[in-house]
Design goal:
This protein is mainly beta. It has a single domain, classed as Maltoporin, Chain A. 10% of the residues lie in helices and 59% in strands. It has a 22-stranded antiparallel beta barrel. Strand 21 and strand 22 form a beta hairpin. Helix 3 packs across helix 4.
Length: 506
């Protein structure tokens, strides 16, 4: 009997159920629902990012939307829906309308015990590091670049003894996107996890046990499905309340690289250090089946600045990066921390949404692939906040190595064309508050991507932007932005674009 395949048609009902769940609790005082209408008019001198024959065009976007946020009670979360309608003056055959959404919520079914987490995302953004528009470009609405990620994750929490905690969780995630001829195809991943932990069982010593099993099924166009099992045991040595050591042992098996599967032991060590309330340093190193894995994280916050550094090497995928992998990126962490300091009035969901939008315009570096790969990233970000000024600097290096071309699908996968994809980027953004109602924004991003293997590619991209935004009324905002983009290498083109925006909340 054939295994059950991914079912992209389940995605729309899932999104609808999430929206209805939020709306169904609208009686709470902390629930807010707000209709929105955003419009933008863009002139570009290279609408198709064509280096040989650039063509000018005007694009008008009209996007009615709905924003819902609930901050307390048994259901917490938010949902943003936008119906993006884009219309060209010249290239009318490229007119399109589609639904974009971003939602995240958690329902406490049984107090302090049973929770159900739901995530939903539909976006169109070029995931190629070598061709097309840069990530986060508002004019990137090609249907083939659509990515849909939805997940439902019930989890049961319990306590035992005098400080022990346990968890049983299950997650079902769907990934799909684009058209049948040029999209990501379909992917359905199921993960079961069990964990027990007592970090201070004997005061000086503590322990934890974790087990997870995942199965990923692809649509009929994929070559085969894949599985993974992980089991870890951790011994904690609590030197003092601010510092502890960790010794790790375990076992793993997967068939990402070869159909017959790989098995091996896990050995590792790490530490957690919290010298102050504003500083956290954590590091873990492990011997894994794919080689050495590690996870290093440093975060430090001062009165007017914040710094973040991460270094990771692990098995990952596009679904992981889009759904929650960005949270590990120091650029996102700094942006979120800055919003937490500057806009304490915003809900956690709203801060996360705004930080994610800014992050995707800057250091986002997802790679277009439906396969699993070994990912190594090193990044740092620093932000400085003044009375009127905010400055953010970010650097990022990422390397992704294909585990095996058979462990995923074949449509447009850059890890099918190259054994290794590397990216280096640096970005700077600056904002200056001209008055209580107007803000000047500027930014620059430079990146270099390299693909190596049987085929090779290299693309260098740079984007500079300058804009001004102004509050026009209590619920109305406007803005004007100029953007210059240059791409050299595998994809040669330049583009100048001017965008005027008007947003209203009702």
């Amino acid at each position: 009997m054939q295994p059950e395949r991914a079912q992209p048609r389940l995605l729309r009902p899932l999104a609808l159920l999430f929206a209805l769940a939020v709306v169904g609790t609208a009686q709470a005082q902390t629930f807010r629902i707000q209709p929105t209408l955003s419009t933008q008019l863009t002139w570009t001198d290279n609408v198709d990012t064509d280096g040989a024959d650039p063509q000018q065009d005007w694009i008008l976007e009209v996007s009615p939307g709905l924003s819902m946020v609930r901050e307390s009670g048994r259901l917490k979360g938010g949902l943003d829906l936008r119906l993006r309608s884009l219309n060209h003056v010249e290239r009318t055959e490229e007119n399109t309308t589609y639904l974009a959404l971003n939602g995240r919520g958690s329902f406490e079914a049984i107090e302090n015990s049973l929770f159900v987490d739901v995530d939903a995302s539909v976006s169109r953004d070029n995931q190629s590091l070598f061709r097309g528009r840069v990530p986060g470009d508002v004019l990137d609405y090609d249907e083939d670049n659509e990515v849909r990620v939805f997940s439902v994750a019930p989890r049961y929490l319990f306590r035992f003894g005098s400080g022990g905690e346990g968890q049983v969780n299950y997650r079902e995630r769907w990934l799909g996107g684009g058209t049948s001829s040029g999209g990501l195809g379909g992917q359905r991943a199921q993960t079961l996890g069990v964990g027990l932990s007592h970090p201070v069982a004997l005061r000086l010593f503590g322990w934890s046990l974790d087990f997870s099993r995942s199965e990923t099924r692809y649509d009929e166009n994929a070559t085969r499905d894949v599985e993974q099992e992980l089991a870890r045991g951790t011994l904690f040595i609590n030197i003092d309340p601010q510092f502890r050591l960790r010794a790790i042992g375990g076992y793993e098996s997967n068939d990402y690289a070869i159909a017959e599967g790989e098995r091996g032991e896990i050995w590792g060590a790490g530490f957690d250090w919290y010298p102050t309330e504003r500083t956290a340093l954590s590091a873990t190193g492990e011997k894994r089946t794919f080689g050495n894995g590690y996870d290093v994280s440093l975060r430090h916050r001062m009165a007017r600045s914040a710094f973040s550094f991460t270094a990771r090497r692990d098995i990952s995928s596009l679904a992981d990066e889009i759904a929650d992998g960005f949270m590990f990126d120091p650029a996102y962490q700094v942006l979120y921390q800055a919003l937490t300091s500057l806009r304490p009035d915003l809900s956690e969901f709203e801060r996360s949404r705004l930080a994610l939008e800014a992050y995707r315009r800057g250091a986002s570096d997802a790679v277009r692939s439906n396969a699993y790969y070994v990912e190594r990233t090193v990044g740092a970000s620093w932000t400085l906040e003044g009375v009127r000024n905010t400055l953010t600097l970010s650097v990022l290096r990422s390397d992704r190595n294909s585990l095996d071309t058979l462990s995923g699908f074949s449509f447009g996968s850059e890890l099918q064309s190259y054994d290794r994809v590397s990216m280096r980027s640096a970005s700077i953004s600056f904002s200056h508050r001209l008055s209580g109602f107007a803000t000047l924004n500027a930014g620059y991003l430079h990146s270099k991507s390299t693909g190596s293997g049987e085929e090779s590619d290299e693309t260098t991209r740079s984007t500079a932007r300058l804009g001004i935004s102004r509050r026009l009324g209590a619920n109305t905002d406007g803005g004007l932005t100029y953007r210059h983009t240059r791409s050299e290498g595998s994809d040669d083109y330049t583009e100048n674009a001017v965008t005027a925006t008007l947003g209203m909340r009702f």
